[in-house]
Write a structure and sequence with these properties.
single chain; about 475 residues; mainly alpha; two-stranded antiparallel sheet; 7 strands; about 5% strand; elongated
């Protein structure tokens, strides 16, 4: 029996070797001359081209709505292998100057996709591959990409092994991250006309899990009660812990009274403390580091969550009364550009880039302090942020004014980004100050003394850029 061109191409794809020649091929009114195929990708392209012509010349399916699948790409459209598109996508991310950690997140997701689908043309990926990908996420052991024995198994074998061992599966947050990475990858393929439509479009959103386990305490994101704040800042206890380092002393105080994210505070520079028309402010901004000024891609170790996080926060009067400006003067006398120079940003071993995580060391120290005080899991610096926002809501401060302080809006009705871009407007600053005046946590702050961190900031101290 004579094989069809598609069968011949399929056989070549399974066992590529040498060149394959197809001559004098005719489909309906479409005639092909001589086609010479020299590799697997070329065979896929030829197969897709023939299939597209077959689809175009076939009789239209009867029925009111026809097929439920999207139209194929026009004849001649590229049908590149998944591995090639993943490589191009990674290069595209690097050109966009995304963080190395973000690129690694995408690489892990796309490695799992490649494992699920095999190295097929991206135009052949459909919703069934996505469903299979989710099955793999649900049942695959966590060491799937690192364990050579697991990598040698088929996807079905890995899923069966996970089911037999009762693998717990990835967390909701991890699943959402994989979902986001996969969706963005397919959206780029649609934009480059590599695929006719996003196979994720028919899958729908993952419903958020609202179930709480009472045995594990309150939800991780919560505000602090007055008694808890008093426990954290109890003078004798807090002083014993905080007097060791400047960042221990000031960042919890600043977090409580500004609602800023912990890394926004940990990465502050001296020139980020500004006086605007008599109002002392913290400028959450990105500025060039002198030693990185000539770096092509990364000119600062500072980072923000997004453009909407760029803002200026008036410094609460309680913080000023506690001697914060005296501390700033001490840092100026020290001559270091950063406000908390005992904290390191860290460096990625693989890329040599800054990790931009000045807060990491402090978060660990503060967690140990809270544990010693008897706090359970799920309480950290972010609780200060929720506390400020919640208290301001309770006294009916408008949502847009809260957003101007915290750097984000809990609902999207307010044009927050535009508000931040006009924070030099005196009216905005006045509203920020008025909102913070209504926020007075019942704590007693320690009074800073000039020079109290002389040893930690001296010439023999370990200071980081």
């Amino acid at each position: 029996m004579t094989q069809s061109p598609t069968d011949i191409l399929s056989s070549y794809i399974d066992s590529p070797g040498g060149s394959l020649v197809l001559d004098s091929l005719q489909i309906g009114r479409v005639k092909f001359g001589k086609m010479t195929i020299s590799d697997r990708e070329g065979a896929f392209n030829a197969q897709d081209l023939i299939n597209n012509v077959l689809n175009k010349t076939a009789r239209i399916r009867s029925g009111k709505h026809g097929t439920r699948y999207s139209e194929p790409l026009p004849p001649g459209s590229p049908a590149r292998l998944l591995s090639i598109e993943i490589g191009d996508f990674s290069k595209h991310q690097q050109r966009r100057r995304l963080k190395s950690t973000t690129i690694k997140d995408y690489a892990r997701t796309l490695s799992l996709l490649l494992l699920t689908c095999g190295d097929i043309p991206v135009s052949r990926i459909d919703h069934t591959h996505v469903e299979r990908f989710w099955d793999l996420l649900r049942w695959a052991p966590s060491a799937l990409l690192q364990d050579e024995k697991l990598r040698a198994m088929t996807v079905d074998e890995v899923i069966a092994l996970g089911q037999a061992n009762g693998v717990q599966g990835v967390s909701e947050a991890t699943l959402s991250k994989h979902n986001l990475c996969l969706n963005n990858f397919f959206l780029r393929l649609v934009a480059t006309r590599a695929i006719p439509g996003n196979p994720m479009a028919a899958m729908g959103k993952i419903k958020k899990n609202l179930v709480i386990d009472p045995k594990r305490g309150k939800k991780a994101e919560r505000f602090l009660e007055e008694s808890e704040l008093q426990k954290i800042f109890e003078p004798e206890t807090f002083l014993t812990w905080a007097k060791k380092w400047p960042h221990r002393w000031w960042i919890p105080i600043l977090a409580l009274y500004s609602g800023a994210r912990v890394n926004e505070l940990a990465q502050l520079k001296v020139h980020d403390i500004v006086n605007e028309d008599g109002v002392w402010c913290i400028a959450i901004q990105l500025t060039v580091d002198d030693d990185l000024a000539h770096n092509e891609h990364f000119k600062t170790r500072q980072t923000v969550k997004g453009a909407s996080a760029l803002r200026r926060i008036p410094i609460h009067q309680a913080v000023l009364d506690a001697g914060f400006i005296d501390f700033v003067e001490d840092i100026k006398a020290c001559g270091h550009p950063r406000l908390f120079p005992n904290l390191s940003a860290g460096t990625c071993e693989a890329s040599g880039e800054t990790s931009a995580r000045y807060s990491q060391g402090l978060v660990i120290q503060f967690s140990a302090y809270l544990k010693k005080l008897g706090f359970g899991k799920g309480v950290g610096f972010h609780a200060f942020r929720h506390t400020l926002a919640s208290k301001l809501k309770h006294v009916l401060v408008p949502q847009e004014d809260i957003a101007a302080i915290t750097g984000h809006s809990e609902n999207k009705r307010f044009p927050v980004l535009n508000l931040y871009q006009t924070t030099e407007n005196p009216e905005v600053r006045t509203r920020q100050v008025a909102a913070l005046q209504r926020y007075n946590p019942p704590v007693m702050l320690p009074k800073y003394q000039r020079g109290q961190f002389k040893r930690q900031l001296g010439k023999d101290a370990k200071l980081y850029p």
